[in-house]
Amino acid sequence: MRPESARRILGRMAALTALLLVRAAGADVLPDDRADLFYSKYSGGGMDITGESVLVRKKFTENFAVEGSYFIDKVSGASIDVLSQASQIKDERKQKTATVEFVHDKTTYTAAYIESDERDYRSNTTSFSLKQDMFGDLTTLSFAFANTTDTVGENNGTANVPIVAWLGHAGSKSYDIDLSQIVTKNFIAGVNFNVITDQGYLANPYRSVRFLDPGNPKGYSLGSQVYPDTRTSTAVQIEGKYYLPYRAAVTGSYRYFRDTWSIVGNTYELDYTHPISNIWILEGRFRYYKQNHANFYSDLFAYADEYRFEGRDQDLAAQDNYTIGAKATYAFLPNGWKMFKRATVTLDVSRVTFHYLDFTDIKYYGLQSSPGIIGGYQPGSEPLYQFNATVFQIYMSMFF
Asked: pTM (2 decimals)?
């Protein structure tokens, strides 16, 4: 089973962490050799996901480096739109990543391969990127391409005795252009343009649509989701970082997203970074995201097969969410020790509040809406769904 919302948040944070770790040095100098240990935990919306990973990076010359990582996440529970038809689940995903990086003059070439495997889902991604410093290192221009192939299945058995039926394949291509500019000695601006094209089996087989059914004592029945087999999404992000006189920095960003399913999303984020001596780095952030629903989404359809495409996945619903996070990095070996040049440990905690604007909480069906009122919540009249999630990360980096 694939709990997309939770794994997307956890995956996005883990990917951002890895990106920051790998790109700690200038564009024309490869980062130091390092080894990292990473642990994360997501709790919210009926889901508990833990992740563990190890990463090792090695330079063979001043121009060539390789990197490998191994990541395992374990999921238990069931999200709200899965509880209507499935019991709680336990699953495990294993992901292996290999990266090579080569620097020539002011140009950095990177190639990576990612293999991800779980009982009912297999994914392989190949990516390439090129980064060029220009105009006295004041401007950096990057191009990236990634190609992903997925095999989608459904477990019709149990967690202990899986019976997997493979349903189809999906493919995704991602194109990125990134431009950053040092505007003044205190201000850096950047813009990113991203296009993703998806094709194939794009639905989640564990989630269902709900439609009115007078013949059912509940007043509704469940049916299979039917998604379009193509999707193209476009996103533009602008970002600015300003360095304050006392070594701190403030970063603000805005991201606009739009896809061919008529989803439009807006993301606003503000970050503050404050170093203390050469030992501590403290960070705080606030993020706000809002989107409308997909054009084939409905919380409750009027009847079975009302439209050609139908979905009730909570990820397609209109929603907003707020994230408040804090991070502290401690350099516990600032002057090195034996073979290690330095070492750090980082603790990162985020709290996310989700509000759904047209996705109801099906657990309230039939429950009494208020004291003295005869009858309970009827289909489609249940309260809107909302929940809080906590994301906890801790990782240690040893540089050598």
From this structure: 0.89
